[in-house]
């Protein structure tokens, strides 16, 4: 656990970067510090490994005041990932990753073996090992940056806007990668970003800081979205809070109908009969392996032939038991029927979420949003 | 005199390596020793000075001012000025040339170190490098290409400037020029020029080779 106890950073000219910060960052969780520039988020991060020393208050690492530890020793025990990766241009990738093990005096073989293991762990091919940083793309460099931070297996990882210099597609894959790694490693991660979406995607808990280094709110992402503490947080969270909050609600409240699918081999007359029997103007068409291929409208069926002769309309799917209500709603909006097709892990149809069942689930989500008890529990 | 050939090969043959002082070979060795010592002296002094100028930024402005003035001093009067102190020794030539080298290398060291990207320096701090290790393993290591570029300039100019020392009797191959001048005999001068140019090319080539070997990682910087 990392504890900020009344931490203030005041510079010589009187500017206050961090103002009486009181925070507890739980072991094994990702805590995100987010806020506009000048909110002291990076300063707060750097006070943990003493790249900056606090003016007042103390920072405790599992109960030990960091100021009682010699800075280089402290830092070798804390992983650090910097923006633009900060790789050493004159060292090969494997030696970059092995930086801290070398500093700790491991023998070269052991350090390099460990580095190779991590190279693989962050999803890079072994032949990258002997290359130099300039031969790698920005995204690959950032992966190496993460591997380097993990090399000596530190319990704590500090990440300072690590993904902000790469393009959005790469950023998303790096974020997914980080969450995958974290599910295996359970590090105590402090992650700084100015991007609230990144904060909400990655954080187990998010601390929103305002300019002048004051804590505006410290809560789980879902609580942040449903219950912003004040106008500043509300504004910082931006548009679509309600929709975004659906990302944190699972699909268990969503009733599925199993009678709305028809095989693609069916005669149109049989399909028309099915539509009448289930009282639905729309039916989801599946292939021989029960995978969805599109929607068909009962009103548009031709007089004869099978469904293979009919032009099917677009559809959207979500994975039952894994995706959120937001994905389900998105899937529904991608179909002219307004219904979402639920699939299992193998892509086979598990059922159909109709507009009625989506409506029920939304109502449930909305009532949870305004339940003060739920908000208080965080 | 007029019907003499431009180069008298027989003279070269007779004077190439007589085993005595004043033979072409011994002048060449002399020349190499003086130029090398001047370069090494310059580097040894410039490194700590450059590092100090990076550490205490306010030092750099006055230092580079003084260095520029020194670099502007003509070498001959400096040799003369040193003569009473050091006498007719190699040091009289090596010291001023070493100081010229310092004047070129201090800015190279400063530029090389300050060109290290901030995120690289920050990450070295964050990884737990102590200041000395960071200086040696990161900052100086990354300054190598810039310092080597400065060394190439210094090497060529030192090799050429040693010959001025001939005017006080310590000029290595430069003695061939005074010899040629006194005797109105062209061959020694041509031999001196050719050998000095060859030496400069070899020194430059060696430094380029050294750069390739020491800094394979700097390829990106070279190609862009």
Describe this structure in words.
- The complex is a heterodimer of chains A (378) and B (224).
- With 378 residues, chain A is of the alpha/beta class.
- Chain A has 2 domains: 2-248, P-loop containing nucleotide triphosphate hydrolases (Rossmann fold, 3-Layer(aba) Sandwich); 252-363, CBS-domain, CATH 3.10.580.10.
- Chain A is built from 15 helices and 16 strands.
- In chain A, helix 12 links the parallel strand 11 (261-263) and strand 12 (282-286).
- The model of chain A is unreliable at 371-378 (pLDDT under 50).
- Chain B has 224 residues and is mostly helical.
- Chain B has one domain (19-218): MetI-like fold (Orthogonal Bundle).
- The model of chain B has no long low-confidence stretch (mean pLDDT 88).
- Chain B has helices at residues 9-15, 24-55, 60-72, 75-86, 91-114, 118-127, 131-161, 174-183, 186-214, 219-223.
- In chain B, helix 2 runs antiparallel to helix 7 and helix 4 crosses helix 5.
- The A-B interface holds A 49, 51, 71-76, 80, 82-91, 99-100, 103, 132-135, 145, 148, 158 and B 117, 119-120, 122-130, 133, 138, 141-142, 144, 215-220.
Topology:
The complex is a heterodimer of chains A (378) and B (224).
Chain A: E1 2-10, E2 16-25, E3 30-34, H1 41-48, E4 56-61, E5 64-65, H2 71-76, E6 78-81, H3 93-97, H4 99-103, H5 108-121, H6 138-150, E7 156-160, H7 168-185, E8 188-193, H8 196-202, E9 205-210, E10 214-219, H9 221-226, H10 231-237, H11 241-245, E11 261-263, H12 268-278, E12 282-286, E13 292-297, E14 317-319, H13 325-333, E15 340-343, E16 349-353, H14 355-369, H15 372-377
Parallel strand pairs in A: 3-8, 3-9, 6-7, 7-8, 11-12, 14-15
Antiparallel strand pairs in A: 1-2, 1-4, 4-5, 9-10, 12-13, 15-16
Chain B: H1 9-15, H2 24-55, H3 60-72, H4 75-86, H5 91-114, H6 118-127, H7 131-161, H8 174-183, H9 186-214, H10 219-223
């Amino acid at each position: 656990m990392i504890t900020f106890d009344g931490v203030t950073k005041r510079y010589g000219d009187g500017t206050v970067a961090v103002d009486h910060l009181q925070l507890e960052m739980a072991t094994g969780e990702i805590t995100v510090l987010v806020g506009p520039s000048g909110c002291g988020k990076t300063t707060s991060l750097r006070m943990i490994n003493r790249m900056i020393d606090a003016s007042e208050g103390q920072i405790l690492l599992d109960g030990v005041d960091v100021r009682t530890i010699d800075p280089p020793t402290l830092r070798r025990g804390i992983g650090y990932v910097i923006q633009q990766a900060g790789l050493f241009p004159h060292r090969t990738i494997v030696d970059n990753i092995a930086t801290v093990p070398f500093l700790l005096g491991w023998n070269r073989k052991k350090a390099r073996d460990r580095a190779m293991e991590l190279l693989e762990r962050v999803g890079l091919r072994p032949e990258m090992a002997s290359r130099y940083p300039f031969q790698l793309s920005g995204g690959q460099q950032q992966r190496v940056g993460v591997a380097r931070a993990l090399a000596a297996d530190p319990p704590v990882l500090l990440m300072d806007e690590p993904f902000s210099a790469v393009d959005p597609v790469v950023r998303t894959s790096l974020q997914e990668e980080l969450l995958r790694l974290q599910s295996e490693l359970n590090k105590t991660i402090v992650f700084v970003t100015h991007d609230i979406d990144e904060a909400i995607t990655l954080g187990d808990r998010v601390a929103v800081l305002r300019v002048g280094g004051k804590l505006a709110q410290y809560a789980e992402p879902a609580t942040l979205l449903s219950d912003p503490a004040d106008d500043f947080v509300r504004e910082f969270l931006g548009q679509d809070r309600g929709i975004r909050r659906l990302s944190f609600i699972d699909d268990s409240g969503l009733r599925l109908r199993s009678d709305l699918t028809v095989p693609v081999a069916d005669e149109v007359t049989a399909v028309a009969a099915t539509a009448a029997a289930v009282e639905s103007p729309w039916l989801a068409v599946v292939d021989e392996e029960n995978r969805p291929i599109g929607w068909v409208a009962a009103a548009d069926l031709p007089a004869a032939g099978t469904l293979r002769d009919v032009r099917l309309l677009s559809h959207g799917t979500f994975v039952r038991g894994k995706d959120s209500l937001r994905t389900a709603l998105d899937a529904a909006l991608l179909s002219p029927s307004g219904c979402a097709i639920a699939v299992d892990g193998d892509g086979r149809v598990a059922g159909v979420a109709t507009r009625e069942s989506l409506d029920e689930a939304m109502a449930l989500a909305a009532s949870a949003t305004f339940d003060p008890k739920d908000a208080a529990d965080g | 005199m007029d019907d003499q050939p431009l180069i008298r090969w027989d003279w070269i043959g007779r004077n190439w390596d007589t085993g005595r002082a004043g033979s072409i070979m011994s002048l060449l060795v002399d020349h190499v020793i003086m130029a090398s010592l001047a370069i090494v002296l310059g580097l040894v002094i410039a490194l700590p000075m450059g590092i100090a100028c990076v550490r205490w930024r306010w030092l750099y402005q006055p230092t580079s001012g003084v260095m520029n003035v020194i670099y502007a001093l003509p070498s001959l009067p400096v040799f003369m000025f040193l003569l009473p102190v050091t006498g007719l020794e190699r040091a009289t030539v090596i010291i001023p040339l070493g100081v010229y080298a310092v004047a070129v290398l201090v800015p190279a060291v400063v530029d090389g170190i300050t060109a290290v990207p901030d995120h690289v320096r920050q990450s070295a701090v964050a990884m737990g490098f102590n200041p000395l290790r960071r200086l040696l393993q990161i900052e100086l290591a990354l300054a190598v290409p810039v310092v080597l570029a400065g060394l190439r300039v210094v090497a060529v100019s030192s090799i050429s400037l040693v010959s001025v020392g001939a005017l006080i009797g310590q000029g290595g191959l430069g003695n061939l020029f005074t010899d040629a001048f006194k005797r109105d005999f062209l061959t020694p001068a041509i031999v001196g020029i050719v050998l000095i140019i060859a030496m400069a090319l070899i020194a430059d080539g060696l430094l380029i080779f050294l750069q390739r070997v020491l800094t394979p990682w700097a390829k990106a910087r070279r190609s862009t």
